[in-house]
# Entry
Amino acid sequence: MFNFSRYKYISLSVSGILIFSLYLVTFLVNKGFAHSLDFNGGLRAVVDVSEEIKKEDIEKFFVSEGISAVVILLDKEKFHYQIDIGLDAIPKIIGFNERNPSLNKKSQVIEQFISMLEVGLKISRENILSADQVGAIVGNELTSIGVNLVIVSLILMTVYLSFRFKFQFAVSASLALLHDVAMCIGFIGAFQIKPSVPLIAAILTLFGYSINDTIVIFDRIRENLANKKFNYSLSHTINLSIHQTLSRTFNTSFSTLIAVIAIIIGGATELFDFAIVLIFGILIGTYSSIFIAAPLLEIYEKFFPQKS
# Structure
């Protein structure tokens, strides 16, 4: 029987190093999180193009101009595309207009953006259905709501687990959840995945998935501790409980991964980032239930032993 408890300090150290590395890459290498229209503001246009103009053609044009653009097909029958670009692309839009003498250099940014679409993509002005500058107010509100939801969820889960199990179980599970959230946010920043509303949903989904997996193991630990037939140490009981629930943990994770991978294979490209974060979160949630939450319970008992 593999001794999970024996490697508790190694697993905790590996997690600490990995989290530190992810945020190091995020802030030192990438200079922060990726820019997102929803969270940082930017320019958004909806265009009606001919059948000859494909999504790849629009993306290729913006790549040639050094602009990171998100192109979404809104209507397959009418070939309506939504084009989102960040505020950091404004100097490049101005530069594009300056390279074309026929365009008005003194017009507002939105007008210059429209002119860029007309000249660069050969789209007539009447086929540019809308062009607006989007603020980051909604994104800020969503971020605030997301943070509040995480805090409230942690408090409620801690209270529930304190009554359902014991306080040390609640503390260990809550710290494991914080570990998962920190890991996922670091992953998003390190790999420059653009923050979006679906990513907030993914993190909150993983929140529930991880705590459910942890509760299964904790419930078995509690049952084994209450079983008078066994007089094992807490370390041995935790190790035994993990082995008893291991097949269920892996089966649940594997079946969930199949569903998420199906989103990547056959789903819309707009859900790709959502699915990638879910896959990473499922793997981390499974790992933390075994290698973080359970060891933390043993460490808590070591420093704050409970009276029989």
Notes: Strands lie at 42-48, 69-75, 80-86, 128-134. The chain has two domains: 5-34+138-303, 42-134. The radius of gyration is 25 Å. Residues 220 and 244 are 8 Å apart (CA to CA).
